[in-house]
Amino acid sequence: MTPDEVRRMRFGRAPFGHRGYDAAEVDAFRERIAQAFLGRTVLTAAELRGHEFATAALGHRGYDRDEVDEFLDRVCVELEFARRGLRRHPGGDALLTPEDVQRLRFSPPPRDHAGYDADEVDVFLDRITTTLAHTGPNGLTSHDVRTVNFGLAHAGTAAYSIEEVDSFLDVVARTLEAEEAARETAAH
């Protein structure tokens, strides 16, 4: 994803009868994202996850919330790869590919902070990779991802940043939700 792609991104309007996100606020935040891709500002996954847009003014539909949220999920993944100096595996329109999961590396937790047990997270990442590579009845569901609980690492053992892992799991869950919705639609 390039700064120009971020700037050119367009969102549909919220469905009739619904108020989406305030368009001007989303556009301003999108420019901040473009600046982050240029290295002119720092934007963390936590800031992306925690950012709340105002609802469009009464009488205005604003931007479709799902489209904006999906875009922010994609940005989380892209910024993480850019931060680590890695290029994403080309995956078409897929929000997340098995190759992306295999190449992803989490940071250790900040000094004096707890972190997830790295071995537990790595085992779950293998399951995510398998699920994304082979869609079918035996893979993980979005519910599985949203409800997974990792133990905290003991002193002296490998640990991952809780914030980074949780941000990534949000992206995985949204990816699986989109696939589940597509399968449900195809079944009907």
From TrEMBL:
Belongs to the DivIVA family. It comes from the Bacteria. One of its GO terms (biological process) is cell division. This is Cell wall synthesis protein Wag31. The keyword Coiled coil applies. It comes from Nocardia pulmonis. The keyword Cell division applies. It is found in: Cytoplasm. Keywords: Cell cycle, Cell division, Coiled coil, Cytoplasm. GO terms for cellular component: cytoplasm.
